[in-house]
Amino acid sequence: MNSESAGTSACHAVDPCEGPEPPHAVHRDRDAHLKRLRRIEGQVRGIHRMVEEDVYCIDVLTQVAAVTKALQALSLNLTSEHLRHCVAEAAVQAEAQGRTDLIDEKVAEATAAIGRLLR
């Protein structure tokens, strides 16, 4: 979709994190993220087996806490990468174009994502 399409703002046309091959930090670290997600997936399967086998509830809760921490660590890593790349690039573009709305949009987007993580 181009910037002239209905419902698309001009801001999205210069968004550093959008396009056919977005330069998201997640793409640069895709292998590490996928490795971490496979490990988490294995942990969740282990919890599933523990429940099926009626393992002591405190032991199951310990594993749930481990998965929760692993997901939080992944979330923090993704957030850091987003701030480092997308928000920083929006700041550069905002300054070059004299458009503070570019940085405001990325900061609002990051703030909302962090808020969802804290709920």
CATH topology value: Methane Monooxygenase Hydroxylase, Chain G, domain 1
List the secondary-structure elements in sequence, H or E: HHHHH
* Count of discrete domains: 1
Instruction: State Rg.
Output: 19 Å
Q: What would you give as the CATH superfamily?
A: Metal-sensitive repressor, helix protomer
By DSSP (H or I, 4+ residues per run), the number of helices equals 5
Proportion of β residues?
under 5%
The CATH class designation is Mainly Alpha
End-to-end CA span:
33 Å
Indicate the percent of residues in helices: over 70%
Please mark out the parts with pLDDT under 50 across 5 or more consecutive residues, or reply none. 1-13
Number of strands: 0
* Shape field: elongated
User: Given the helix and strand composition, which structural class is it?
Assistant: mainly alpha
Mean pLDDT: 82
Main sheet characteristics: none
- Reported CATH architecture: Up-down Bundle
Walk me through the structure.
This protein has 119 residues and is mainly α. The protein has a single domain (24-118), classed as Methane Monooxygenase Hydroxylase, Chain G, domain 1 (Up-down Bundle). Helices cover 76% and strands 0% of the residues. The chain has five helices and no strands. It has helices at 10-13, 25-28, 30-52, 57-97, 100-118. It is elongated. Mean pLDDT is 82; it is low at 1-13.
